[in-house]
Amino acid sequence: MAASARARSRSTTKPSSQYLQRILDLHRNEDQLPRRIWHDDPPFLHLHHRVLHAIDYSPNPSLPLDQALAHLFLSGLSSDPFTAGRAIKKLSSSPSSLPRAISLYSSIPHPDAFLCNTILRALLNSDRVHAAFAFYSRSLRVSPNHFTFPLLCKLFAELGFDRTGRCVHAQALKLGFDDDLFVRNSMIHMYSCFGDLAAARRIFDLDLRTDLVTWNSMISAYVKNGMVRDAQEVFDQMPERDVMSWNVMIAGLAVAGEMENAWKLFDEMPGRDVVSWNTLINGYASAGQVELARQLFDEMPERNSVSWNVMLALYARMKNYRECLKLFDGMMAVGDVRPDEAALVSVLTACANLSDLGRGRWVHSLIADGKRRIELDVLLSTALLTMYAKCGVMQEAKEVFDKMEDRSVVSWNSMISGYGVHGQGRKALELFMEMERQGPSPNETTFVCLLSACAHSGMVLEGWWCFNRMIRVHGIEPKVEHFGCMMDLLGRAGLVDDSERLTEKMKVEPAPALWGALLSATRSQSGSKLGEIVSKKMIELESGDMGPYVLLSNIYAEEGKWDDVEKVREAMAKNGLQKPAGVSKVECDTSVSDEASVSRRNVMYSLLGEMGAHLKSSSKQVERQRQASL
């Protein structure tokens, strides 16, 4: 009797965690796991059951969560929609566990719309739109509800599936969800992404209830498609507005270049947030109005990372690199916003163009600091290796390049250009051949960098090989830049006649840059007659450029044609051109000169200019006296 009682006791006793682990060790294959571990039916799980509590409150991923999920599978509760729904919701909260959520969803005999929406929303939030579409295609047997259609509208809007999106609209009409406000707002957004503003406006004009989202969606649709006047009309008809209404309208006017109207609207806003300020600053930045953008930036009551990034990118784009670094120093000093990837790209661009290797290495240390959680993506890695390449540290640039898991065409081009600028044409050519084997397809810029590298290293035959390979293998039509590199290559090698013949065979109209390359070749090879012809041609093309005048004057001066030199100088003066004094910039101890030192330099440059003019006048007098004596 006692033995049978102990046996019954063992048959009804719940297994321990050690027993569960032993079962898992024995059955690694999920298909072999027993569906039940109790001989009787499992108990009903109330809302506060310890298994559900562990699923809801355990971190994802974590060992307690894995144990709770194993308990669900081994007990057979995973097929229960309510229990499985809690598990799917938890697994969908992290992109890393989404595949497990989908697997659990597939094991449920009759999933409902709630479970389908949970996974679909998680896939969309993690930017896995193609995986979301594949999941939707497998879940067509699930009846959608009014929460499903907004998710589908967002999915097909991002994928650009026009026909499928219209089918979803028809299904919503058939099921009677067309009067749902949330569904209608999503439809307006979807059709705006398709560019079908007529369909979006028909939905907007339905005699149904609207809210601020409806009006804002229609304004955003017009702004997104460049129809600012129509957006303004809807904006003026709004019964009430929120901050987003004003921000969208200001953004539309700014994109259209109507900064005066954008400022007027900004000034009329009853309440502004940081997005309002950023929108207007970005508008002035896009228009290249640096002073107004900086004035607004300084007046901002609060700033976020977007505020700093817009100004840093503006200074980098306008080539005001020192002000970019100065602003970044202010950003680090304030400390309320941490620099992100976009900010560091602008800073590294400034460091590269200023050859500020010390600052660039410091930025690299910020990226390597794991506490800042800066992701070294393709764009940031490319900016980093470009900085090292322009500073002449090709070894460190190559180290950054080798560590990149994903390399864009720009990454390869930057490395090829770096090798070329520093006279390492062989390495540039080797890297190009590696790019052909395992990298992306080279583009027009790739061959500009490669031909320039050959020109700097005097690799004439290799340059011709690259030029022909660009045309015959990659099917790229030569542009002005490619011909310019070839003329520079031939000119440096003394093949001026070949360079001139190449110009005659071009299918494109020779640009001033091409004539400039040919002129440099004639200067280096003492081709005075050809140089005179090319200089005059350049003056015809760009009479406002001082360079050709100076080169032509130097050619006449070398031949002692002082009367022609005087005529060139008179032509320069007639066109209002004046050659500035040469200046060499040297950075000492990474300090910036104060106003007094700047004033002293200006005085010195003026004195040097006067001395140069005096020497020119004296040389002319000496030459005239020499000719008179003869």
Please tag this protein with its features:
single chain, 630 residues, 35 helices, 70% helix, TPR-like protein
- Determine Rg (CA atoms, Å): 35 Å
Total count of strands: 0
Largest sheet: none
Q: How many separate helices?
A: 35
- The class by helix and strand makeup works out as mainly alpha
The portion of residues assigned to helices is: over 70%
Tell me the β content: under 5%
* Poorly predicted runs of 5 or more residues: 1-16, 26-43, 590-623, 625-630
Task: Tell me the span between the first and last alpha carbons.
Answer: 144 Å
Assembly state (oligomeric) = single chain
Protein name: TPR-like protein
Describe the structure.
The protein has about 625 residues and is an all-alpha fold. The chain has 35 helices and no strands. The termini are far apart. The N terminus and C terminus are likely disordered.
Topology readout:
Blueprint: H1 2-12, H2 17-26, H3 50-57, H4 63-75, H5 81-91, H6 98-106, H7 113-125, H8 129-138, H9 148-159, H10 162-175, H11 181-194, H12 197-204, H13 212-224, H14 228-237, H15 243-255, H16 259-268, H17 274-286, H18 290-299, H19 305-317, H20 321-334, H21 341-354, H22 357-368, H23 378-390, H24 394-403, H25 409-421, H26 425-438, H27 444-457, H28 460-472, H29 480-492, H30 496-504, H31 512-524, H32 528-541, H33 546-558, H34 562-574, H35 595-629
